Amino acid sequence: MSSNPTRASWIDIAIRRKAEEEERQRRERTKTVRRNRYERWHVPETLDREPDNWLMTYLDLITLLLALFVVMLALTRIGPGPGAKPPQVAAGVSLAKLPPGPVEPWAADLPRIPEEWSRLPDPPPAPVATAPAEPLEPPAAPIKMPTAAELGLADLGKSVDVQINRQTVSFRISNELLFTSGQATLSKEGGPLIKKLADVINRSKYPVSVEGHSDNVPILTRQFASNWDLSTSRATSVLRELVHDGVDGQRLRAVGYADTKPLESNDTQAGRAANRRVELIMRIMPDKNAPD
Predict the structure, then answer these.
(1) Range of the domain at 263
(2) What is the DSSP letter of 8?
(3) Transmembrane ranges (predicted)?
(4) Could you report the per-residue pLDDT of 220-276, keeping only the tens digit for each?
(5) Contact 155, 199 (CB under 8 A)
(6) Side-chain half-sphere CA neighbours of 245 within 13 A
(7) CATH code of the domain in which 193 resides
(8) Which of 20, 169, 187, 198 could form an S-S bond across to 245 if both were Cys, CB 3.0 to 4.6 Å?
(9) Sheet of strand 161-164, all strands in order from the earlier edge strand to the far edge
(10) Residue-level pLDDT at 232
């Protein structure tokens, strides 16, 4: 009966030893794995670091240079400042009695200029080159205004108000002779009148501007939204009729001014009637196409 406990204790001891041996082997394996992993990712420092002795030599050199600069600065003679007084000559010393210094060899060998040369007259001044004067452009020929006979104004009668100015000839026609109220189509009476104007215009080669004007009474219809539309349409109708009657279209242009250029006050009926008009402005220009 006493042998059973002894055998059990030996078995326990063996189990513990085996467990301890296994734990020791496990620790050894763990150390080996860690050491291999460290050696794999860490390269040993095989190169020796250079000594820092050069740094001390560099500092010594800088110190010596600094000391040299300080000594040179102390030995340098600094000139007097702007407020300093000039040095005083010692009493009893005369500058006139000082012996002349030695003449430099190069100064003694220089040739002397004869005195006669100093009395020679001054040389004459050099001629100044001047560019030839450019010929002046001839003045523009005066504009010769055509006469009433040359324009054939007698054929227009009293239906057209003709104004001859300095550089323009204006043919002013009342809208009542050309258009019905609120319309931009030429009336039966307006066509023959434009035909007479076309004959007058074709006697020259000057450009003509057809200008439409109105009063200040607003207009709003399906055809015209404002007086600008109405005045421009009337000027365009006159221009088309002139081209139809043989006037070169390159000489013509149409423009509408609405009520921006009144002749009379729009406060009266007569003034508004005078402002409703079409004007043909012939611009006289001095060109080769103008009549002599």
Answers:
(1) 155-283
(2) H
(3) 55-75
(4) 888 889 999 999 999 999 999 999 999 999 999 999 999 999 999 999 999 999 999
(5) yes
(6) 20
(7) 3.30.1330.60
(8) 198
(9) 161-164, 168-174, 277-283, 208-213, 252-256
(10) 94
